[in-house]
Amino acid sequence: MNDLLKEFTRNLNYFLIGRDGDEKVTLIKKHSSNLQAIGEFSFPNTITAWHEYVNEKADLNNSNFLTYVKKDAVDIINASKKWKLSVKNVKFINDRVHLFVDRRIAIRVCLECCLENNNWIIQKLNDKQNVACIDPSCDGAGITSLRVKSLVQAINNLVAINSSNLSETTRVVVTSKSSNSCGSGEYLLCGAVLNAKTNVKENALSGDDFIKLRQNELMLIAQHKYGMRAGTEDKWREFIAHLGQSAVTFELLQTQPSSAVKINFDVSTGCSKGAAFILYNCARLETIIRTFNEKVVDGTYPPLPQITNTDFSLLTQEEEWALVLTYAAGAAGALAGCGTGPHRLCAFLSAMARLLSQYYRKTRILTEPRSHLLPVMFARIHMLKVLNETLKTCLRILNIKSVSQMYHSFLLLSFYIIVTLTLK
Questions:
Q1: Distance between CA atoms of 315 and 5, rounded to whole angstroms?
Q2: How far apart are CA 423 and CA 42, in angstroms?
Q3: What confidence category does residue 94 fall into, taking pLDDT thresholds of 50, 70 and 90?
Q4: Sign of the torsion formed by the C-alpha atoms of 319, 288, 376 and 1
Q5: Any idea which of 158-172, 201-215, 409-423 has the lowest mean pLDDT?
Q6: Looking at the DSSP assignment, which residues form a beta bridge with residue 172?
Q7: Rounded CA gap, 302 and 377, in Å?
Q8: Residue 72 above 90 pLDDT?
């Protein structure tokens, strides 16, 4: 998997000090907000900060780091022209050097790399070998056992994409019992599922009961909007079954594995927000892409040009750049950072969905088919297609079906309404 952001940091480290540097303790910081003002990356410009990499005789008080290594802003810009992500501008702010990436070139590079990574991940998942298993003593019907099983599935997927040699990967036994031992392997403790009202482990409801509870919650919302039709037609029952199961999976995985999960089992409170909000934004993207494709077929829009023939310099909104940099290019690093903790991927998806929602409310994607409006629409469609595939790939790692896998196009509008009511 190609991590562009990690590669940039490695290239910059090598340029500055002649070595890749310790990836876990790098002095180069990637920024996640206010990028227009402070750039995408920065590093300290004091010799004190870099003292481990400089000569013992260096004057730690009277010289900045770039002067010490005999480099300047122009040198950084010129050197980066050979990197996949190049630097367009350099600013010096409060003893730090701030680097501004050339977005015009970087957007296409990030999107192409993300597409390649998504395809690579799918192949890895198809060929995976399971290294995590459930502790036999935890293989029951309870809700905590359901959490253990969900965690095992997610860990197997994460290990498949993050381990270069699965044959050498240590076997992991996932258990909810802290006193258990797993012999030659290692065990990972899974926290219990607690009832939020009583703050004690929930034993009255089974895992299947919990799924049915969430499905009933969503069915009540559907019937409120559509009447009995929502409870009797096969398409609705299948729709609700998938959404309810997705809500439960996300609810059980979004907390750190070793920590207990507190669940509100009151069906009237609407507790399926996490998965619903993410799938809601998936549905938005699916609808935009489907509508665009339909308008190409009926002749309203010309066909989408190849990504290499698309002008991504037209994507000038800060939300667009943040989506590309943090969630398209940043997906590789986020997945690598998950380890055996799918809660980190849940957090990544939730943050991505929030930014997508902000962008959707602010920006009209599908415009009138006028020649001066088409180029920016094409760039946005390419961006949203990549982000949509990234969402679906990450959901698959969590064993959650995406909207396109669950529903046909005629259900997407209905899905909007159901989850909108759920999120209130």
A1: 20
A2: 38
A3: very high
A4: positive
A5: 409-423
A6: 132, 186
A7: 11
A8: yes
Between residues 266 and 334, the one the model is more confident about: 334
Residue 134 to residue 207: CA distance in whole angstroms: 15
Give the residue from 224, 223, 243 showing the smallest Cα distance to 233.
223
Torsion of CA 258, 403, 314, 113, to 10 degrees: 60
Confidence class for position 424, pLDDT limits 50, 70, 90: low
Tokens of 321: 């750049």
Which has the closest alpha carbon to 392: 259, 260, 254, 246? 246
Name the strand (E) or helix (H) holding 375.
Answer: helix 374-397
CA distance 255 to 47: 40
Q: What is the mean pLDDT of residues 257-269?
A: 81
Range name among 101-115, 256-270, 315-329, 365-379 with the lowest pLDDT average: 256-270
* Confidence at 225, pLDDT banded by 50, 70, 90: low
Task: Collect all residues with Cβ–Cβ distance below 8 Å to 358 and sequence separation of at least 6.
Answer: 319
- Of 159, 176, 157, 177, which Cα lies nearest the Cα of 168? 159
Question: Rg (Cα) of the chain, in Å, rounded?
Answer: 24
User: What's the rounded Cα separation, in Å, for the pair 114 and 161?
Assistant: 14
Q: Distance between CA 24 and CA 418 in Å, rounded?
A: 43
Return d(Cα 244, Cα 221) in angstroms, integer.
12
- By the 10 Å C-beta count (0-12 exposed, 13-18 middle, 19+ buried), 136 is classed as exposed
Mean predicted confidence (pLDDT) in 136-149:
92
Nearest Cα neighbor of 149 from 217, 211, 213 is 211
Q: Which amino acid is at 280?
A: Y
Q: CA-CA distances (angstroms) from residue 35 to 41, 113, 263, 318, 332?
A: 9, 21, 37, 8, 20
Q: How far apart are CA 395 and CA 275, in angstroms?
A: 10
Q: Residue 8 — pLDDT band, cuts 50, 70, 90?
A: very high
The tokens describing 383, both together, are 């961006």
Residue found under tokens 């001066």: 372
What is the Cα–Cα distance from 36 to 98, expressed in whole angstroms? 11
Query: Which residues are 255's β-sheet partners?
Result: none
d(CA 48, CA 38): 22
**CA-CA distance, 216 to 222, in Å (whole number)?**
10
